[in-house]
# Entry
Amino acid sequence: MCLFSYDDDPDPDEQAPAGLLHVPVRPEAAGPVLRMFRTPLGARTAVGFTRRELLTATLGTGQPSIRLAESALRSLAEPLGVDRLVVDPTLSAPPVTAGPVRADDEPLRVR
# Structure
């Protein structure tokens, strides 16, 4: 921890509350279910977006969402063992799909 305080250099551990978030969900018969994600190091995390446009840019136009306060999202994620919350992530990997192999692709051969 730094002994000096600078107005232009906030401590990332002391972030302001995010407020009302757009939270990605999966539609289920009983109602929407929170989607949990993983950080690049594999830790489970809840995700929320401050604007619908940011959610769409990251997860696509078809991603359903609900509005939740940050505190409500944390309360719902905690019983699942998820204590991380990422707000406005900008990077995501596309889902893995089995697509056609191009003719010029060489398949991996295991011997």
